[in-house]
Write a structure and sequence with these properties.
The complex is a heterodimer of chains A (243) and B (281). Chain A has 2 domains: 75 residues, Gyrase A, domain 2; 155 residues, Cyclophilin. Chain A has a 5-stranded mixed β-sheet with strand order 7-6-13-5-14. In chain A, strands 1-2-4-3 form a 4-stranded antiparallel β-sheet, with helices on one face. In chain A, strands 10-9-12 form a 3-stranded antiparallel β-sheet, with no helix packed on it. Helix content of chain A is 24%, strand content 30%. Chain A is an alpha+beta fold. Chain A has 5 helices and 14 strands. Chain B is mainly β and 281 residues long. Chain B has 2 domains: 145 residues, no CATH class; 110 residues, Cyclophilin. Helix content of chain B is 11%, strand content 33%. Chain B contains 4 helices and 20 strands. In chain B, a hairpin with a 2-residue loop joins strand 6 and strand 7. The longest helix of chain B has 10 residues. Chain B is elongated. Classes of the chains: A alpha+beta (243), B mainly beta (281). The interface between A and B is large, with 41 and 31 residues.
Chain lengths: 243, 281
Amino acid sequence: MSFKLSYKAFGKHAILVEWPNTVDEKILNDVLLFKKLILETNNKLILYINNAYNSLLINYDLSINNIYDEILALKTIYTSQNGLIKHTFRHWKIPVCYDAKFGIDLDDISCKNNLTITDIINLHSQTIYTIYFIGFLPGFLYLGGLDKRLHFSRKSSPRLQVKKGAVGIGEMQTGIYPNQSPGGWNIIGNSPINFFDVSKAKPCFASSGDKIQFVPISIEAYQSIKDKADTGLYQIENSLVHD
Amino acid sequence: MIRVLKSGFYSSIQDQGRNGFQEFGVPKSGSMDSYSSALANSIIGNDNSCAVLEITMTGPTLEFLCNTVICITGAYMSPSVNNLPVKLNQAINVKANDILDFGKLLYGFRAYLAVKNGFKTKLVMNSRSMFKNITANHIVIKGDHLEIEENISISSTKSSIKVDSHHFSSIDLEVFKGPEYDKLSIDQQNLLTNNSYSISKNHNRMAYQLEEILVNKIKPIITSLVMPGTVQLTPSGKLILLMRDCQTSGGYPRVLQLGEKAINMLAQKTTGNQIKFRLTE
């Protein structure tokens, strides 16, 4: 671990740790490693830890008495690491139906980005995306790795209702709406699986640091997977990867 | 059981909120004014983890189907039991078939109703706090039956706890520097902490937006982490004060962070009310 980190008090109950200001997988891995090390100290005063692209928020149960002591404790944890810890993650295969029935903005992207619809589907499903973190909505994955040719500006006025499972593109990002919500991204398909299930101990199957890949499916396959997913019988294809 | 005869403007079951699910994008939720909610619980001898009913702006009409002890705190919404006015901040015995009703809002914006041993609605991810797509409903609705325990009455105490009226009337909110505070110009910093601001009509459990604009030249940040109390500054200069149901991440610069007490006080404010940020180290 060799990044220059900044530590800031964030109110009386939290410390924010920040990495250099860029979206980079090396930074994500370092963020996740630090998060893991802090969790391993099993500090009962820590209420929760959450991460984003290049930041870590450590939230304490009680107000922090001496911020310098807490920051020093965190710095010690960061520098104690010997660099031998291997990064382990899951690689998930997410079925997506890119049929025009769901992909209501495919034509628009096709025209403006000068790509055929088959090009769009291929470019979108051939990339392996990194899950940087989950935020915005419960079960919404922030994914990195969208092909430049698919970058597309957000709709000038958001739709009031985007369907659950809708797969969209907004600027340089792609993502899936875990539930029906308003949204300004361009919709290219729909995934029949559940990204958020309150009945599960781990309500979202994926975690920060995992990878996902989209697998194009037909309308018929969509319906059959959806039936299974809705009754909890669908197993998302995945594999454990040791980096 | 309590039967909901009328729901009021926005009534929801809340407790101390959800922790540990932020990494799945789940908001913390919980009582907007945690001070008033804790007070209601403590007056009737409940543990602070007991779920209460948070009542916003206009109250519901509730019919008790069993005996219990209740306490109402927070905003004054002219509460009555069987058409007889009842006091805030005091234990009240209610019997089966009693009707709790609310009237005119005289001060504050959110009232809390605690019942002996708490509301027993379904626990979802260690909390009963209602939130869309997490709990079955995000508000209580007419016809709902809210589960509570039957409890014997207590020898009624006439004494009520006195609450400092500053909690409702003070415009001063204690704040800390947010992670991007230092990116503001000295002028912007002065405007932020010397001016008073008014609450716009856009306010709810997720966020309070302010009316005045703070001209902004700082760029959006790479999406980072936020929490209840974070004050965001949008590219168009709007100030957004995140509240209990806020998202876990956001891309606007975080210029201030409200303290817990300030969040509680803000939760009692509504459209047109003034606030002033008091920066503390």
